């Protein structure tokens, strides 16, 4: 199990269970205009290639979830959301990091995902975990129609350095 770092109360990440589905479906409905039905989570739960995790607060409340699919040496973050009341407290990052660590451990070469172009919060979350944009699917989403950006994270990749280009310049020559 993984414990989220501060700030905010500690949370625990564990396998999604049948009893979580009502809370998960409520978070999903509050998070997406094209929400997955409860049955979509239920059908994935027993699949060997699907990895469903929930973040649980100390009082047992489900505050977020992450669904990752792993097959053929690659993975996909198929779904991730944090309960609106829990956003901005490290839950999404903890969920994503836990899944990425599992993907690295499984030697998945790369993890992919799609994200709405306008979803600044998710894009920042992904970029901070080493995802980079590798493509675009035009008008991929409905309600409202919008392009999806395709992002990829290579195995073991971490966030890009925040150093400026100047920091990367070669040091002055010492040959003379
Ligand atoms: C995207 C989402 C899962 C982030 O979850 P969260 O628990 O609020 O995120 P965290 O508190 O762990 O934040 C982690 C990082 O995400 C980014 N982030 C989170 N909220 C942000 C916001 N409102 N604006 C900009 N960046 C944000 C930041 O990089 C943040 O790191 P920082 O705190 O060091 O700045 C959450 O906003 C959500 O559920 N959104 C609706 C569902 C959704 O869009 N899912 C993704 C579909 S592709």
Fold and architecture overview:
It is a single chain. The chain has helices at 21-31, 38-44, 91-105, 120-128, 165-168; strands spanning 2-3, 11-15, 50-57, 62-71, 74-82, 110-116, 132-141, 146-154. It starts with a strand and ends in an 8-residue tail after the last helix. By secondary structure, it is α+β, with helices and mostly antiparallel strands. It has a single domain, classed as 3-Layer(aba) Sandwich (Aminopeptidase), CATH 3.40.630.30. Residues 163-176 have low confidence and may be disordered. It binds coenzyme A.
User: DSSP strand (E) fraction?
Assistant: 25-35%
Number of domains: 1
Reported for the largest beta sheet, the result is: 8 strands, mixed
Can you count the helices? Answer: 5
List strands and helices in order, with pairings:
Layout: E1 2-3, E2 11-15, H1 21-31, H2 38-44, E3 50-57, E4 62-71, E5 74-82, H3 91-105, E6 110-116, H4 120-128, E7 132-141, E8 146-154, H5 165-168
Parallel strand pairs: 5-6
Antiparallel strand pairs: 1-2, 2-3, 3-4, 4-5, 6-8, 7-8
Short recap of the structure:
The chain is 26% helix and 34% strand. It contains 5 helices and 8 strands.
List keywords for this structure.
176 residues, alpha+beta, Aminopeptidase, eight-stranded mixed beta sheet, 5 helices, 26% helix, 34% strand, globular, disordered C terminus, binds coenzyme A
């Amino acid at each position: 199990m993984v414990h989220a770092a501060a700030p905010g109360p500690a949370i625990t990440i564990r396998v999604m269970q049948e009893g979580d589905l009502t809370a998960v479906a409520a978070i999903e409905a509050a998070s997406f205009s094209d929400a997955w039905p409860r049955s979509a989570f239920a059908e994935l739960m027993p699949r060997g290639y699907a990895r469903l995790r929930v973040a649980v607060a100390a009082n047992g409340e489900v505050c977020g979830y992450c669904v990752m699919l792993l097959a053929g040496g690659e993975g996909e973050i198929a779904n991730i959301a944090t309960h609106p009341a829990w956003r901005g407290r490290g839950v999404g990052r903890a969920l994503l990091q836990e899944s990425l660590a599992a993907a690295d451990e499984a030697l998945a070469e790369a993890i992919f995902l799609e994200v709405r172009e306008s979803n600044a919060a998710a894009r920042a979350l992904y970029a901070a975990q080493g995802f980079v944009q590798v493509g675009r699917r035009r008008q991929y989403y409905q309600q409202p129609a919008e392009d999806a950006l395709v992002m990829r994270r290579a195995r073991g990749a971490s966030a890009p350095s925040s150093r400026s280009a100047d920091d990367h310049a070669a040091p002055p020559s010492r040959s003379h």
